[in-house]
Design brief:
Number of helices: 15
Number of strands: 10
Radius of gyration: 21 Å
Bound molecules: flavin mononucleotide
CATH architecture of the largest domain: Alpha-Beta Barrel
Strand content: 5-15%
Strand order of the largest sheet: 3-4-5-6-7-8-9-10
Number of domains: 2
Distance between the termini: 41 Å
CATH class of the largest domain: Alpha Beta
Order of helices and strands: EEEHEHHEHEHHEHEHEHEHHHHHH
Shape: globular
CATH topology of the largest domain: TIM Barrel
Largest sheet: 8 strands, parallel, barrel
Helix content: 40-55%
Amino acid sequence: MRNWLSQRTNFVILAGMRIGSLNLESNLFLSPLAGYTNLPFRLIVREIGGVGLCTTDLVNARSLLEKRAKAFKLIETSPADSPLAIQLFGSVPEEMRDAAVVAAAQGAVSVDINMGCPVRKVCNVGGGSAMMTELTKTVALVQGMVNAVKIPVTAKMRLGWDEDNLTAPDLARALADVGVAAIFVHGRTRAQGFGGTVDLAGIRKVVEAVPTVPVIGNGDIVTPAAARKMLDETGCAGVSIGRGAFYDPWIFRRIRHLLQTGELLPEEKFAERLRVLSRHLDLMIEVFGEELGCRMFRKIAPWYAKRFGPCHEFNKAIVHLSSRKMFLEVVDDYLRWRQQFLDDAGELLPRFQPAPLVASFMTSADPLAPGKIPVPGGPVERW
Ligand SMILES: Cc1cc2nc3c(=O)[nH]c(=O)nc-3n(C[C@H](O)[C@H](O)[C@H](O)COP(=O)(O)O)c2cc1C
């Protein structure tokens, strides 16, 4: 039994966990989704509960050092947004080292290094997934960061560049040797992009490669059952969830409940979804101002609506959102329109219920399988 696993019986997989000197309340993590996992969304997830650590979107190390307003907006936080990791990308060792120091000074409890991003803009400068192809260089860069800060340094990677170059186990081992405190691994290669199935056996190989460092599995977890399966089959110490949290911000609480009791909580009711949707908009307005906050919310609200049942009238109206007042009108109109799909008790008639969510590694037949959140399209070489 590994020391970060507190207990494991029939249904208790674990509650809290440690990353280096850091004690976390749960082994459930919010994965960075650039453009989505900003301060308002992190606060939403934290208010609902269950998450152990949230991470910012990826931040360009150089932009942080140049004190660019956009980079600082990405790491904007508040007392309720804790504990928070800042994720950095870059390939110049001195910049990554100095940016880690800035991250620590800004209050991050850990700094995460992006080694998984497949997009060209990031890989062309030697960052993101490209770091998985140059082990010696990457390890030296990481060592510089570990030496420069007191907070834990973690790495987020894929299984490798492509199926002929599954470097994650070797890289994880080398990073563990220079003091990386945890490894996050998305169970796909860079060549896979977001397609195909998450490879649980591939994640397991990373777990086996680093017996002294916690490995956190990631990819396609959209239900508590999927989290449970990833923990069971890979032996990972925790799981990290990105897109699944957008389908269901309650997922962390539901996973925690499943792991602690063996009982599966039902999905949240419509009224609660609407309450949280409205709260999310308020936070967007607080952080980004009414105009920008509403504009950004146009792409967020449809994620909530996916679990509303019939929602095309809502989606049609919300793409024009420009004020809080307009939001209330859109919701009012939608509630009236939605009544045609309800029974006498005000519940959605069964034939209008949204299809159940199923992770790719549980069955490939699910119409709502991950991949429906915008991901880069076309051949991976052109991203
Ligand atoms: C729109 C989008 C943005 C992403 N941005 C980041 C990022 O900034 N940093 C990172 O390490 N991974 C990023 N990822 C990858 C996710 O963190 C995660 O590894 C991947 O989506 C698989 O997990 P999921 O199925 O739970 O979403 C992004 C993925 C998507 C779809």
